[in-house]
Amino acid sequence: MSTKSDINERGNHSGEFTQGVGGWAEYTVEMTEIEDMTRHDVRVPPGKVIPIIFLPGVMGSNLRMSKRRQDELRRDDNRSWRPDDLMGAQGKGGVLIGASLGGWLKNASPAQRQMNFDPNETEVEYYHYTEDKGRFDPDGKETLAADVRHKNVPDDLGAIPPLLGQRSIGRASVGKKPPSRRQRGTPAQQARWRGWSEVFFAGAYGDILRSAEMYLNNIFAKNDIHEMWKPLMEDPLSFGATGGAKLTKDDLNKIAACWYPIHAVGYNFLKSNGESAKAVAERIRALVMGYQKRGFACEEVILVTHSMGGLLGRALIHPDYGNMLNDSGIKVLGMYHSVMPAMGAAATYKRMRFGFQEGTGLAAEYQAQVLGINGEHATAICKYSRPFGAASRLMVRFRMAEVGR
Fold first, then answer.
1. Which of 338, 356, 377 is the last residue of a domain?
2. DSSP result, 234-260
3. CB 149 within 8 A of CB 125
4. Which residues constitute the domain of residue 304?
5. Whole-model pTM?
6. pLDDT digit string (tens) for 327-341?
């Protein structure tokens, strides 16, 4: 129920479109008293969408194993890799007492570890949901089952208006109900549909996704530059750049009339980047086509990568793999890399000899036991990871011969 506190300076009830699960533009009309004849003031959504695609680093995607492999390992669940399950008091406690995924990995033999990380028996943990006549059904059987599996993006995820949930509006608090969930998904469900729960969410990735969502879709507020953008309009020399002109209001005006939904795309990091690029390219093409079917102009994407995700990004535009550089329907506007191992990763060679322990103390030892306490345990999983070129594969063959596997 809307109240007088919603009324803007023009005497209208303010409202705005948001994005529903599946990419629809949605607007919720708040009910008013019968005698309230004040009009609603609706900001029309932009006609254009440019999805921002985040590609995580190695071991940054959640994987599940096949039923056959789960049975072979006699596991209670099919989670192959899920870094969020290893974080927090509950995750770390599971490692200590030998419970949950972390506890299982801590006690796994090299052979069991290798079976757990088999690229031919694993896949990304996608968020599947129920549809009702082509629209998202938040209470459907498949949706509810997926929500249980994807709680690394918590149910109480706060709204990030305008796309990921709406701004709170004034409501009579007694005897009034908020809009039904059936009108649109919760912010958590919207984020899960965007792929946020496919990747490691509790750490820096979650911060990156939330911050990018907030900044890119709130460039202006009430026709003025949003306060959080103003520090970015200072002279680039003041924050460490070597040169360049500062941003102007005209610059921001050029890009503001557009939605920039932040999507994360997990991938099976156990497979070659060339193979992963083919799968990810098809997902991006399907995403763009989905926005087009929902009435948006959408022919461009921007890629943001971390670590091994940068190698995947390069493979995405390579003509022999993702072939997105020559795609007639989608243009990659740009690709931003963060710490991409373009020259290889020396740490991989070290770990195949000495394991993953980097520090001293129980915490470092338990972490290493989960990832691989020595060369034998580390090589069992590095055997499958092929992002670092021929030298890495040759090193793996030598180590595999040494440990007899």
1. 338
2. S-GGGGT-SS-PPP-HHHHHHHHSSB-
3. yes
4. 4-56+125-217+259-338
5. 0.86
6. 999 999 999 999 998
